[in-house]
Amino acid sequence: MQLAAAPRPLLPLWAAIATSVAGGLLLTLAFPALAWWPMAFPAVALALLGLIGRKVWASALVGFAFGAAFFLVNLLFTMRYLGPVPWLALAMLEAVITAAGAIPITLAYRWLPRVLPGSAGRLIALPVLVAGLWTLREQIVGSWPYGGFPWGRIGITQAGSPLAHLASWVGVSGLSFVMVLLCAAAIEYVRVGRFRSPATVLPTAIVALLLMLVPQFPTAAAGTLRVGAVQGNGPTGYFDQRAPGAVLRAQLQATAPLFGEEMDVLLWPEGGVDSDPTTNPETADVLDALSDRIDAPLIVAAVTARDGEYFNTSMLWRADEGAVQIYDKRHPVPFGEYVPDRAFFEPFAPDLIGLIQREYTPGTAAPFFDLSGVGVGLAICFDVIYDDVIWDGAQAGAEVYMFQTNNADFRGTDENLQQLAFARMRAIETGRSVVNLSTVGTSQVIAPDGATIDGLAADEAGHMLTKVPLRTGLTPAVVAGEAIKTVIGWGSLLALIVAGVLTRRPALHRGRAAGDAKTPAPAGTGVPG
Q: Which residue, of 118, 398, 417, 487, has the greatest Cβ tally within 10 A?
C-alpha cells in the first residue's frame, strides 16, 4: 500500500508558530539549571509538527519562532554583565540560522514521500532524513560564523540522563541525531495511523530501544592520578575591582590547606594567574616556590604575550624550569576575546567593542600535556563545547582531562551549570575522567561514566584533593566522530538534493497525480495554506 504525501500543512500558520514557541521554551527546561532531560523530546516534536506541509518562507518563520524562543532564554546569561545588546545579537543570529535550517526539513517532508511513498519511506527514510537535517543545522550553528557557537545542542540535554552512554559510540551530534530520529519516527507512526499493524511501530520502537539499552563503550582502567584542584573565588570578572596580583593571592590562599599533602599535580583554573609568568619574574618566582613546596608540577593558566600576539595559555609549570609545556586556547570567543571585522562592527556598538582591547590569537598546539608519562587532555573555558579540541586530546594520548575555566562574568546565572553539562558529556563520550575547575565554580571531578566524584559549590573558595581514575583506549565517538558528523549532516543534505531532483522527473509527476486521485490523504492533513 502506498501512502500519499501530505499536500497541505499539518497545522495552520498561527498554530505552527505557537507550537514552535512552546517547543523552544520547553527545550530550555531540558538544559541546566533545571535539566529536565525528558523535555527535549516533546520540544523537538513540537518544532517538527509546525514544519510539515509548510511553504518555504512560512517554514522559515516557524523555524525562527522556535529558535528565538529557545536561544533568548538559553543564552540569557550573556546579558549578565554586558547588557541586552550582545544577548539579543547572539540569540537573533542563532535564531536566523535556525530559521534557514528549517527550510530543508520542510522540503524533506514535501519531497521524500513523493520519491518513496511506501511505508518504508514514510516510517524509516523520512525520519532519518529529517533527523540528519536537524543535526546538520546544529553543526552549522556550531561552526559558522567566526567558528560558530555549538552551545544549544540537543544531545547535551542528556548529560545527566541514562541515555547519555550512546554518545560514547556516536558523539554528541550522533546522540542529537538519534533523539530527533525518535521524535520524527513517532510523528510519522501517528500520521500514518495504521495502529493495528505491529510493523508500523517497529522503527520507533527500535530507535527507543537503541537509546535506552546501548551501554557505554568500555575504556581500560590505567591507575589513578592524585590531583589537587583549587577554586580561589577571586575577583576574576571583567569588571571586578581588583589590585594587581589579587587573583594570584586568592588562589594561593585557597591552596594553603593542601600544603603537606601528597599529590601528582596541582591544577588552577583559567585566569588563576593575573600576570604573565613567562615575562614577569616575580610571578614566576611565586609559581616556582609553590611547585617546590608541594613537590609537584602545576597546571596553571594566564594571558601570555609572544611576538606581539596575545594568547589564553595553559602551562605545565615545574619548579626552577618554568613553563615546560604550553597549550594556547584554540577557540577564542568572538566579541569576547577578540573582535572579528572590528572596523565593521565598531560603529554599531562602539562602547562595547571598545571594551575588548586585546585580540587573542587562536592556538595551534595539541590540547595535551605529558605529565611524567600520564597523558592529560586540555580545554580552556568554551573550548569544551568544540568537538575537535576534545577528540584531538584523546587521540594525542589523554588518559584524563583537565578543563580550566573562568565563569566569573556569569555569576548568578546557569552558565556554569550548562558548561558543566558539556564537561560531563565529554567524560562519557571519551570514557575519561574530567577535572572541571572554575575560578568561581561550579567545579567538579567527573568519573568516566559521568558520575560526580568530588565537587566545589559556586561562589566559595575551596580545594579538592582527589584520586582521579585514568583510562586508555579510544571510543568510537573519538575515532569516527568527524566521519559520523559528515555522513549524518552533509549526507542528509545530499539525499535531500537527490530527492528534490527526482520529484521533478515527469514520470514521477504523472505517477503522483494518479496516486493522489486514488489514495485517500493520510491522517493529519487537510489544513489549507
A: 398
